[in-house]
Amino acid sequence: MATQPFPEAHFATFPEKLIEPCILAGAPVGGRVIDPFGGSGTTLKVALENNRECTISELGEQYVEIAEKRASTIQPKMQF
């Protein structure tokens, strides 16, 4: 699967569709996802959109800011 362009991050941002099945299979609604290499926050974004809690860790300050910005605009999907 090819990387997904994201203008604020580095060239290797992975696609949201790549991580989504892992999040859905690995954590129930309301469960927690942990990403020790948070980067630009792709895992955080997808987890929050799918009503999962998420903790990420990232050493690069520039990526922490990007991830915080991405997370601030998330609209969780409706659960029926």
State the main characteristics.
80 residues, alpha+beta, two-stranded parallel sheet, 2 strands, globular
Molecular structure report:
The chain is of the alpha+beta class. It has helices spanning 16-26, 42-49, 61-71; strands at residues 32-35, 53-56. It has a two-stranded parallel sheet.
Quick structural overview:
By secondary structure, the protein is an alpha+beta fold. The chain has 3 helices and 2 strands. The protein is globular, with a radius of gyration of 12 Å.
Termini Cα gap: 30 Å
Number of strands: 2
Q: Per DSSP, what share of the residues sits in E-state strands of 2 or more residues?
A: 5-15%
Structural class: alpha+beta
The whole-number mean of residue pLDDT values reads: 88
Give the low-confidence spans.
none
Strand count, sense and barrel status of the largest sheet are: 2 strands, parallel
SS summary, helix count: 3
Strand order of the largest sheet: 1-2
Query: Could you say which overall geometry the principal axes of the C-alpha atoms support?
Result: globular
Rg calculated over all Cα atoms:
12 Å
Please give the structural blueprint:
Elements lengths: L15 H11 L5 E4 L6 H8 L3 E4 L4 H11 L9
Parallel strand pairs: 1-2
Helix pairs in contact: 1-2
